[in-house]
Amino acid sequence: MATKFGVLGELTLHLEGQPLTIQGKKAGALLAVLLLRRDLPLTADQLIDVLWGRTPPRTANASLHNHLARLRALLGPQRERLVHRHGGYRLELRAGELDAEVFTVRLAQARDAHADGRWEAVHAATTAALGLWRGRPLPEFPQLHDSAAVTHLAELHLNAVELHVEARIHLGRHHDIVGDLTQHTTDHPLRESFHRQLMTVLHREDRAAEAIAVYHDLRRRLADELGIDPSPAIQKCFQEILDSPRPGSPAATVTTQTPRTKAQQPVAAPEPAESPRPTSAAPFQTPRDIGDFTGRRDELATLLAALREQATALPTVALVSGMGGVGKTTLVLRAAHLCHEDFPDGQLYADLRGFGTGTPRAAHDLLARFLADLGVSPRLIPDDTDDRASLYRTTLAGRRVLLLLDNARHVEQVLPLLPGAGPSAVVVTSRHVLAGLPGTSRITLAPLDRADQETLLASICGTELVAADLSATERVLDACAGLPLALRIVGVRLAQHGGRSMAGTADRLARTGQRLNAFTVDHLDIRNVFMLSYRALPGSDGQGHRDAARAFRRLGLWPSHPFSVEAASALLNQPLEHTMDLLDLLVSAHLLQNPSPGVFRFHDLLGEFAAERARAEESPADAEAALLRLLNWYRDATEYAERASGIGRARLTVDTTSALPVLLPEFTDGQQALQWVSNELPAVTAAVQLAASSSRPELAWHTAAALFAWIQGNWWSKEWEEPVATALTAAERESDLSGQAEMHNLLGMAHGSAHRNDISLHHLRAALAFYEQTGATERQVAVLANISNACSQAGRLDEARTAIEGAIRLADESGLPSARFDHTLGTVLLKLGDTDGAAVVYRRALDFWRKEGRVFFIHICLVTLGDTLRALGEREESLALLEEGLRIARKENHEFSTADTLEALGRAHFHFGDRQQARLHWREALSIAERHHLQRVVIDCRKGLESLEGGR
Length: 952
Known about the structure:
- The chain is an alpha/beta fold.
- Among the domains are: 4-155, Arc Repressor Mutant, subunit A; 174-252, Serine Threonine Protein Phosphatase 5, Tetratricopeptide repeat, CATH 1.25.40; 297-444, P-loop containing nucleotide triphosphate hydrolases (Rossmann fold); 450-522; 854-950, Serine Threonine Protein Phosphatase 5, Tetratricopeptide repeat (Alpha Horseshoe).
- The protein is built from 42 helices and 15 strands.
- The strands form 5 sheets. It has a 5-stranded parallel sheet, sandwiched between helices. A 3-stranded antiparallel sheet has the order 1-2-3, with no helix packed on it.
- Helix 15 links the parallel strand 8 and strand 9.
- The radius of gyration is 37 Å and the shape is globular.
């Protein structure tokens, strides 16, 4: 389906036939100006001027890169069209994709027809042109209203209207256009052409007096405003009306301009010579089909449907692309054999050698071969490539031939080999997406799904071997990562060597960094397949190729986890826009995957190959510097997410090792920030592990410490323990007291949240000892409060009171706000039986956190104060506070807080006698708690529901 861009009215975008909403005025303005100035690269300064005017913010450059990245993400598979060349940005469009371009083409056709006096053609062309017009271009972007491009389009629109009206007058179809012309003269009071046309139509309608009035009104306006007389054309029209007041016939129209005439009538082109026909049977050159072809049901059906379509105007062109070894040729050969009868004039095949050790095939030579195969005498084959292509297209015209162009490297290899017209079809395979291949049905092959992997392996080595050890088979399939070539190599090795077992093969493939050594047999070698793709990386020039290759292997330093454009920018030490260009190029070459907008990753085996290239071609110093930039980025991004969550401490340590600005993810709210941590936790954990053994081990505990906010909401998950424990070990190895203190405190809080009180106190007391050694008073106060919480949960209330009173005392002595610890004090007082005192302290804590604007802590205070007021019998205020807490929890989309608040609300409604509401709240809370393994909430809800059943 077509991609369409619209600027003749509000900005519109259709990708592959689907309308897309453009989020954000800045991204929309960016796309709009790139479409308006499509033929001229725009510098960053020009784009900034469009987005922010003459007073851009200090962060305009970084923001522009972010908006460009979002625009690329919006374009999805079409992102490679947004290019940066010769110092400017440009959106590459294809013919017919932009409504303004189609409009100008139609207008040009109308002007040509007008010059020849072909009024039906003028009418048809202007009707088509005006049908594209939806209103003034881009009304939602005021900054573009006075631009030269918009003004030019508005003028072209008026030209089209004038020609359209002129055509209707000449064709005698003017009887209902007086109203339109009157409006045009009102909107454009000095545009003489509209007045002349209105005068002509009024005269033909036997309304000469009104036509004369139009003339005099125009004459007065021109004299008053411009000091000039009407043009000779208007004066001539006026005089002819005076001389002939009666309406005339269309053929005798006196007001239309005389069209230019041709000196000669067009001469009919000679009939083309009959296409050379083969003197022997139709060629069938398709190689042998693969007997164990497996899977690809949807892709095969799509390809067959495209090939069997009885095209008559334009031949079908299908591109099958994918990474090396994914089975492109196998799929195409199967399709070609299945549709043999659909191409009675033959099938031509050529390996273009785009990726291989041989010299790539040139179109010049292949045209000669194909012409000879189609029956053209060698002596009639021209020497010039263009002449050969012309004869080739003539020879194919009217025939139904299937052309298989395998292993293409670039579009230039393919274009001369495409038929010009008729029912033939072409299938191209390539490891590159060949974005410039026109009118193409595109099929991208992904790795095989699990069931097809097992079927293919069994078909090669035997079902008995596969079924004998299903666990080992699963491990082998994991190692092959869905790549058919890998499965074929493993299957052949198992089948050829009777002594090999599935378990032994799985063990060998499981060795880190050793898989590629195992994937070779006879002429099949995965490493060699990947190497050919790597060495054939495209680039606009030699430097472009080198940049792409360097990006590929440096990304191999981080092969196992998805990454964002911003993370890649830090690793590569490149500006965001250039990084996006490099990533897009790698995706286009199928050396990198782009599973969702803004997210990139390696195929498992390609990641291992990229890591090999990094070890082989990057110096240790460059590799370490790149990896440290990435580790710094993960530290900064995780700290930023913590700050954005509203839960953690407001801190941010920005990487200073890079000369480029640090570009961090953007979050619209705290929940989105915490969700980012959840999504990135495997990568953050890997970053902590790498940092712990690097020359900058402090990055390990700084990154782990930034998980505080996420851990607060995910204490039931043990995923956080690994990075924190790793960071603690690193801090102990480095004898870093602050690092050890931070990690012990974090472990203490996390275990305390899960009511593992003994281990919590062990870590918290260790943290307190380290903080005392470093003299970090503020941190000592916080740890004392955490110790009080853990003691309170454990029922050691005297110790809890001593700890929190010590924290408040130390805070007051140090000039720190002690009110932040009132909530902890209130909890201890409540458990000691001083409910009134607890309520007073809780109110004080709630006021403090409301002033601070910290939503997470406001919610905690609302729930605890609401529950305390329940115990004091304050029904209305208790329920109001708890309902407010529930609204906050739901708005923040925080499941644990929602479950905890619902449980408290259930208790409150039960206490005040509303059993139905209690049941509803407890059931909802129980459902959430069971889903997230919130054991304490599960127990409390079940007890509540049991009390309801017992009280029937």
